[in-house]
Amino acid sequence: MERQEIKTLLQDPPIGSQVTVMGWVRAWRGNRFMVLNDGSGPETLQVVVDGNRIDEATLRGIGFHACVSATGVLTESQGSGQSVEVIADSVTIFGENELSRYPLQPKKQSMEFLRDNAQFRMRTNTFSSVFRVRHGLAYAVNKYFHDRGYYNLHTPIITGNDAEGAGEMFRVSTLDPLNPPKTEDGQIDYRQDFFGKATNLTVSGQLQAEIGALALGKVYTFGPTFRAENSNTSRHLAEFWMIEPEIAFADLENDMELAEDFVKYLINYCLEHYAGDLEYLDARIQEAEKNMKATDRRPMGLIDTLKFVVGNDFARVTYTEALDILMRSKAYKKGKFEFPLEWGTDLQAEHERYLVEKHFQRPVIVRDYPKDIKAFYMRQNDDGKTVAAMDVLFPYIGEVIGGSQREEREDKLRQRMHEMNIHAEELDWYLQLRTFGGCPHAGFGLGFERIVQFITGMGNIRDVIPFPRAPRLAQF
Ligand code: 4AD
Ligand code: MG
């Protein structure tokens, strides 16, 4: 089969030549104007279908989301709204679409409804734009690191470790769930399981990435991660993709610099290469906000927000300073926060959003968190209370990046693991990275869906991954 892609055709339209386009009908007007989109970009192409040239049966087959091929001469358009159009000599219907039985309809449909009908949601303007941008970001991630001499490391999806020590793991087992073998004291005997030990889906590739960094210098992972946390929110998925750079000879300052430079690069890449999709998504938000109270609307449009983020330095504060700002805020004094604030408690989304959207009005990097709310591998600061951790907080989303300088001192790491009840035998290989030829190193994890969510302006994280996994949600 031969066809021209609409995106390419419109870049430099070969007026006067014969072209063949194939795609799905977005609109069918006056039994004469067929608006086609083929997924190559957000652009549509109008095809003029003349009833005198095209037979009755074919005409009847044209309709919303039917799949067609059209051949004809590309001409300058007489009508307004498009610069060129195809005057069809022939039209072939690949797939008719019986509208009375088709789940989607040519009208506004709710995000929830479209999620339930994910077999078709990518045919809508919104979702096709979101998934093109998602692709662009995945490419930009690899380009950014490749161009700077990082090596991509494929870390395992099945592992015996709990990298975050939070116990939020999905068990991987081939044992008979109804009749598992038992040990003498009545526990499930995972020694008889497929891997001869208890295994789970990975929550992070970081610990293995550290192995890579301490040999290759600079590495990054980009893979699926799984968390069995029962968080039914618009920012949590049970299966999400994470990018984890890990660098040798680096401290927390280097880590923060990399994080800021990296996310700005990703945003710039989209502004440059996916302008059409972003314009569509921007307009979509402004349309949705028309019926909202002024206080609920975004202070800036989507593209302006993105430009603002890349054009300004991120604010940087310590956890202690952040807490101080929060506790002195009007919102806190008026009891506007739901969750309590006290030195040592974790910042909740409402606190993060206050810092970013109200106080600093730009992205914020919070560093030096209390050690008791952070993972065992983070480097202990000299104050004995905090660790060299940092979170990057964004408007609307909150945390997009979490990272740290790693504890490279074996004795300190052992002591912390002991305090946190993490068995040294299980992470012997991790400890050995300190015993033998270790060095200061640091890294972070960027939640891929969170940055896609920020850049596309989508309200729910489930709408930026093709097939979301969340509590009670594993369709497709
Ligand atoms: O802060 P987290 O838990 O950090 C780690 O996993 C470290 N091992 C990273 C590292 O230092 N190499 O997760 C990192 C990021 C978060 O900032 C967030 O953006 C995202 O992963 N994330 C989630 N995204 C979607 N759904 C969830 N349930 C997520 N949990 C974390
Ligand atoms: Mg985190």
Automatic annotation (TrEMBL):
Subcellular location as annotated: Cytoplasm
Query: Which residue spans adopt a coiled-coil conformation according to this UniProt entry?
Result: 271-298
Which GO BP terms, alphabetically?
A: asparaginyl-tRNA aminoacylation
Q: Name one Pfam family in it.
A: tRNA-synt_2
Broad class of enzyme this protein falls into: ligase
* Alphabetically ordered keywords of this record: Aminoacyl-tRNA synthetase, ATP-binding, Coiled coil, Cytoplasm, Ligase, Nucleotide-binding, Protein biosynthesis
Query: At the top level of its lineage, which domain of life is listed?
Result: Bacteria
Q: Which residues form the Aminoacyl-transfer RNA synthetases class-II family profile domain?
A: 131-466
| One GO cellular component, as annotated | cytoplasm
| GO molecular function ontology, one term from the record | asparagine-tRNA ligase activity
Q: How does it assemble?
A: Homodimer.
Q: What is this protein called?
A: Asparagine--tRNA ligase
